[in-house]
Amino acid sequence: MPAALSKEQAAKQLAALPVEIQGRVRWQIVGRPEQMPPPGEWYLWLLVAGRGFGKTRTAAEWLANEMVTRPMTRWAIVAPTFGDGRDVCVEGESGLLSVLDQGVRSYNRTTTEVTLRNGSRAKVFPATSPDRLRGPQFHGAWLDEPASFRYGLALWDIIQPALRLGSPRIVVTGTPAPVPFMRLLMGLVDGQTVHLTRGRTYDNAANLPPFLIEQLRRRYEGTRIGRQELEGELLEDVEGALWTYEMATRNRGDVPAELNRIVVAIDPASTAKETSNETGIVVAGKYGDKGYVLEDCSLKASPLDWAAKAVAAYHRWKADAIVVETNQGGDMIATTIRTVDSTVRIREVHAMRGKALRAEPIVSLYEQNRITHCGIFRELEEQLASWVPPADSPDRLDALVWALTELMLTKQAAPIVIPSSLEQTSPWRI
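The structure corresponding to this sequence follows.
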């Protein structure tokens, strides 16, 4: 048996390899065992794990290796939205570009296509438009965060016939959630052609800041969202909840180029609440008869700090009002906001019905596919899917209900025109 190489000898031999191969060999050395692809011939590899496990880096390394070692091949990268695919899977810190040497690839950001010198190409496709996968053909695909795909089942039926070149392979990376597409994929696991790798956030503790690990542990350990987001556990829907997880997450998309109205809704922290001591701050918009959840700015903070956060969101999105509930200290909320910025328009609303009755019309809007989440708002979505009346509703959910009620269920005059002195570059386009 040959003697083990010293670090210096290994580095020298590594440097002698072609540049296209160096990164692949390096990953075999530094990657954790659970980040290595299954052995032998396989069709589908599911990497289901908590956040921070290293799923994106693992898939990027796998795809880079396939592109480098299989010249003239074609690959699809499918993400919940076009922006997710570009910003995370390709350009992200752990994305495809980060693991490919600049000397072996070129990148067209407009088309999100990565091309290698050997002719291999990879391109981003958004799960919001599965029909875009009907024409092309591929040697394989990387599907990222399938639980957040808007049309997951339809996309699966379309992409499989498109994988008709060579010996196709698919890698799926994501945090699990109880949606039909995720259940379908998990049900395919046979240990032969379909493999499953599970993992936890803590498995990657060596590469994560200790303070982050401790913060995540304190915040989520022992909770439903912790079991899902940290442990990578596939949870079931909560009996009696008004929203199912699938209903709360099935419609995702990029922010529209135009919106008729935008509001910021606040539900302040209350010591009377058993579910949360956060201040819920949700930004939502409307275009036609559709509503869009734009941002979740909720946080634990002092009144002045959460007021500053809400005012910043108000200006960043060029909102026409901040919605506050007068039943929950409305005068105090308005006074605090005006302490931060006296020019902000405040819309005071009064709760005339119980929380379940207020939430039910919003649930109906979700059932009718009239609400789109412009991003992945995990904590907000978990609150939607786990709240069972008559328990006290959590703050993010309350803020969402107030924002969408104001936009979708309240007759309004023409939108307020924001003074030109407050105009900023629009963050609407992703």
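Residues 413-430 have pLDDT under 50 and may be disordered.
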